[in-house]
Amino acid sequence: SVGASSPCHARRCLVRRECCGARAIMYSSVQRLEERRSTGDLDRPSYLCELVRNFTNEKRSVAKMALATQLANFAYDPVNFDALRELNVMDLFLDLCRDPAHVVGEDVPAARCTAIGAKGLCNIVADRTHSALLSCDAERR
Questions:
Q1: Residue 14: helix, strand or coil by DSSP?
Q2: Is the pLDDT of residue 139 over 80?
Q3: Phi, psi of 43 (to 5 degrees)
Q4: According to a count of CB atoms within 10 Å of the terminal CB, is the N or C end of the chain lower?
Q5: What is the rounded distance in angstroms from the CA atom of residue 94 to the CA atom of residue 100?
Q6: pTM of the predicted protein model
């Protein structure tokens, strides 16, 4: 049986998710992950970069929250982990939790910002590298 701390294997990838005391293990073959990558459409890294750029440049709080929600949803997919790491999206989620008024604005409830940031973090820490980065961030504080 494959345990929660097993490394990725050539034929089966183990993705461990632990959040709020819940634990789920999802298995997906490397082949299945590769099949999910689009070939003719806009490539994901470019699309994710555009979402981050739009979030950064957007002035309206409601639109920023919609973009943050989209990024949190993309953080669930292992295909996106590398691109999200390069774009420092985990920092965006942390900032939503730490200082929502500064990131989004005063007109969105802080609890809503924190919830979206926390959802994004719960999704993205399924990636071991993001999980290690989050641990390092916590140790610095």
A1: strand
A2: no
A3: -70, 150
A4: N
A5: 9
A6: 0.71
